[in-house]
Each structure stands twice: as C-alpha cells, then as structure tokens.
Write a structure and sequence with these properties.
The chain is α/β, with parallel strands linked by helices. It contains 17 helices and ten strands.
C-alpha cells in the first residue's frame, strides 16, 4: 500500500494515462524521454514508472508542443490522425489517409501527436461547491487535484472547509499545527507561508477546525470578499491550476472563492434532496456574478450515480433537462474504489487503475481541465 507521492505506474498503467501504445515505452526510454526503474515484486524485477518520471514525461511533451519545436511534424501528424479518424467515421476505411509517420519521425513527435499532452487548462482557478453537505465535494476535489498532478500540472489545492476533509484526503494529518487561509485573510500571513508541499507537483493550503471561526472576523474586514482573490493572485504564477474545496454553506469564505474563481464545479448527488437544492445553488451563483460583476463558467457534476436505482436515473434525467448547458458529460458513479481511495488517502488510480472509479475520475478530470 502506498501514498500518492510514492505511487509507481506499471507500463500498462502509464500507457493508458499517456494514451500511447505500450510498445512505445522502450523507444521513449531510448530517446531519454521517459525514465523507468526496476522494482522487485515477489521474485521478479518489474519495470515501473515513478510519479515524478511520469510528470517529467508529460511536462516534456507539453514543452515540445508549446515551444513549436517539430511544429510542422506535429501539425502534419495531427492532421493525419484527424483524417484517419474521419476515414473511419465515414466508412472509407482506416488506412485511407495513409501512414502518419516515417521511420525518421522522432518518438516524442509521435507521442505528442497521438497521445495525451497536458496543455494549459481552460480555467486556472476553480472551486468545487454546493451549499448542501455530503454530495462528494471533498472527495472529487482530492481525486481531481491528484489526477491533474499526475499529468505534470503544477497544482495548488486549497481547503476552505474547517472540517479539513480535503487536507485529510491528501494524507495530511497534522493540519491542526499548520497555518490555514484564516491566518492569511485575518492575520495577514503571506499566502506563500501557508502553502505546504504534499507530493511532486502538488501543494496544499490546509484547513483545520480553527477555520470554522473565520466568518465573524472576515465580515469585519474591509474588502472582505476580495481578500482571497488578492492573496491568490500573488502566487498564481507558480501554478498551472488552483482548485479549492469549499464548506457546505452560503458563507463569506465561499463567496470570496466565487470572486476568485473563474470556474465553479457544483457537485450534485443524484438524489432528490440534492437535486431540490440545485435551484438555490444556481441562484446564489448568479447573484454573486451580478454583485461582483463576474462571469463564471458553471459546471454541474452528477455524483454518486447508481444505474441500478430508478431514482438515480430520474434525478440525472431531471438535472440534464433542467440544466442542459451546465451538466458534465461525465457522470461519477458510486464506486467502492473511490471510497477505498478516501479511506487510504490516495488516488483511486492507486486502488484500481482499471476500475470504473478511475475511469470516471480520468474522464471528469479531462473535462474539467479543458472545458
Ligand atoms: N463517487 C463516489 N463513490 C463512492 N463514494 C463517494 C463518491 N463521492 C463521494 N463519496 C463518499 O461520500 C461521502 C461524502 O463525500 P464528501 O465528504 O466528499 O462530501 P462533501 O460534499 O465534501 O461533504 P461536506 O459537505 O460535509 O463537506 C464520503 O464518504 C465519500 O467517500
Ligand atoms: Mg467536504
């Protein structure tokens, strides 16, 4: 059993993350683009890819694409890929567009053109939100930030709930001794001093019970709703994405995050009471947008879905018909693996990389990063 920072991927797991053929791995190793280690499992040495090497690989591909190096080759390869997909779609056959790569095409170009490249997220500052409790906000925030960090994004997770569940989900158990966003917003602690490292590419501003007392002192501060966005702005350059978990209330702290964020991921459990609360949640967000002259990208993430339950199916149908422009395509099924990951304070990928929970988290992460 490992924690997130110790996670190592098998070649099969890595190739599924990177969306490349497993047979590419030796060529990537030869080209110095991917480093693997040997780890003893039972009596055999198995090839593994540690977290930090997976991150280096993804960062390298991003750099290759963003720098424009091999630009023409990548564009040509992407065009060939599109043409092949179109040929499959219109029934003219998968080989109609011809071979995409020559023997001279560098392996990094093939990987960048065919596999997953973690380009800049569409929205840098995001929050998971719902005034209703227990819908899965902390669970999905934790899984999302770990999944994004696996792809080499520099991630800051921000725990805005005094229950500290995001903090615990990221395996930090001594948060009572650490500064929180309370110290930043109320005691003028520089925000950089409240940040701790959790794992490669993953930092956290933790929370503890003391954060439950923030509402009255925050209410008394000038420019109270702007203090959080001003603090976040100071460290935003150091991260690709900043994601907060919030407390289940219409609090000033949550309001401050609605001012700081550009994307709000509302987690709605697929049960009748959670659905009932959605109109209020959406109205609250709209009010905040008007009051602070903001335009937020609002996404509804259906969670805890069980396709064996008629009520789950009905609520999902209602959500999609009432909020057609907001619901994610991804639906988060109720998953024993996700619960196990919460218990073990790690990523669901570490529990069962091929299970439904990991598949759902992968799909949701890509959707929330790029739309
Ligand atoms: N997709 C899922 N599959 C299985 N269990 C889940 C899933 N999502 C959340 N859970 C479980 O549901 C419970 C509540 O989740 P969580 O604590 O994340 O909710 P929350 O919205 O953050 O609650 P609060 O409002 O109290 O902060 C947890 O036990 C968590 O493990
Ligand atoms: Mg929570």
């Amino acid at each position: 059993m490992s924690t997130f920072k110790e996670i190592c991927f098998t070649p099969a797991e890595f190739s599924s993350l990177a969306k490349i053929e497993k047979s590419f791995i030796p060529a990537l190793e030869e080209g110095g683009i991917l480093k693997t280690i040997k780890r003893r499992v039972g009596n055999v040495d198995r090839k593994m890819i540690p977290l930090v090497e997976a991150q280096n690989y993804f960062r390298h591909l991003r750099e290759v694409v963003e720098s424009g190096r091999h630009g023409d080759q990548i564009v040509a390869a992407l065009e060939a890929k599109e043409a092949r997909l179109a040929a499959i779609a219109d029934g003219t056959g998968a080989t109609a567009a011809g071979p995409a790569f020559s023997a001279e095409t560098p392996i990094e170009v093939i990987a960048a053109a065919t596999g997953f490249v973690p380009l800049a997220p569409m929205h840098k500052v995001q929050m998971f939100y719902n005034v209703k409790g227990g819908t899965g906000k902390s669970t999905l925030t934790a899984q999302y930030v770990m999944r994004a960090a696996m792809m080499g994004y520099r991630v800051l997770a921000l725990d805005l709930d005094g229950q500290g569940h995001l903090t615990v989900n990221l395996d930090i158990l001594d948060a009572h001794e650490r500064p929180t966003i309370y110290d930043v917003l109320i005691n003028d602690l520089p925000i950089a001093d409240s940040i701790m490292n959790v794992a490669p590419c993953l930092d956290l501003i933790p929370a503890n019970l003391g954060l439950c007392n923030i509402e009255i002192p925050l209410n008394n501060k000038t420019r109270r709703e702007y203090r959080l966005s001003e603090a976040i702005r100071k460290i935003a350059d150091q991260y690709d994405i900043i994601v907060s978990d919030t407390n289940p209330a219409a609090s000033i702290l949550n309001g401050s995050m609605l001012v700081a964020a550009s994307k709000v991921n509302v987690v709605c459990a697929t049960n009748p009471l959670s659905f009932h609360g959605m109109s209020l949640v959406m109205a609250t967000i709209e009010e905040m947008e008007k009051e602070f002259d903001r335009s937020l990208n609002v996404t509804i993430v259906p969670n805890l879905y069980d396709n064996r339950e008629v009520i789950s199916q009905e609520v999902l149908g209602e959500l999609r018909s009432q909020f057609p422009d907001h619901c994610t395509r991804s639906v988060m099924n109720r998953s024993a693996d996700i619960n196990e990951a919460t218990k073990r304070r790690t990523t669901v990928f570490d529990v069962n990389s091929r299970g439904m929970g990991a598949t759902d988290v992968n799909a949701l992460t890509e959707e929330l990063l790029f739309s």
